[in-house]
Amino acid sequence: MRRTVLITIALIAVFNLGAQVNTHKLDYKFGAGLGFMGSGDVMAQCFENELTYKINSYFSTSISLGLGRTFKDVQSHNDYMSGSLNLFISPFKNNRRNNFKIGAGYTLINETASYSSYDINYSEGTYNPNFNYLTQMVNGFNVILEDEYMIGSRFLLGGKIFMTGGVEEGGIVSGGMIKVGILL
């Protein structure tokens, strides 16, 4: 009888330990926040969609698509669209409720700027409006600090601080955002 009780307790303990471990490998997160473009003088509204795959208890990788937009006035704005591939390390493991991770990766940014200018001819008393449109593709690398907290068994809430710099062009986008997600 004692042996049966001990085996039953051992089996219950094994099954409970297995139930505590998070078996979800994929999660999807949406983020929104503020960023600074260029040399930090242009503030942008940033949005991001991210799909993360957990490799093991310390490493994960993600692919993300980000959008940003700035309005200086009705006719002037800066936009960017970015695609990133990142690798994260979780120094305190990523199988608990709180997951702090440090990441780095490659980013391809399509940056667009549009603005109006005027050519003024004082002798004739006329001005000619000009609409300027500039676009460039930028290869860059990013550094990310992210902390996510699990709410319940499937939902995530987190914060992210990021800095993306162009290889040849210098700093492009830096900022922070709040993210919500779900385990898939």
Structure description:
This protein is mainly beta and 184 residues long. The protein contains 1 helix and 8 strands, in the order H-E-E-E-E-E-E-E-E. It has one helix spanning 2-20, and strands spanning 26-37, 42-54, 59-71, 77-89, 98-121, 126-151, 155-166, 170-183. It has an 8-stranded antiparallel barrel with strand order 1-2-3-4-5-6-7-8. The longest helix is centred in the first third of the chain and has 19 residues, at 2-20. It starts with a helix and ends with a strand. The model is unreliable at 16-21 (pLDDT under 50).
Walk me through the topology.
Layout lengths: L1 H19 L5 E12 L4 E13 L4 E13 L5 E13 L8 E24 L4 E26 L3 E12 L3 E14 L1
Keywords:
mainly beta, 10% helix, 69% strand
Largest beta-sheet details: 8 strands, antiparallel, barrel
Question: How confident is the prediction overall: mean pLDDT?
Answer: 84
Radius of gyration: 24 Å
The gross shape turns out to be: elongated
Order of helices and strands: HEEEEEEEE
Low-confidence stretches: 16-21
Structural class: mainly beta
Count of helices?
A: 1
| Annotation, overall tally of beta strands | 8
The percent range for helix content is 10-25%
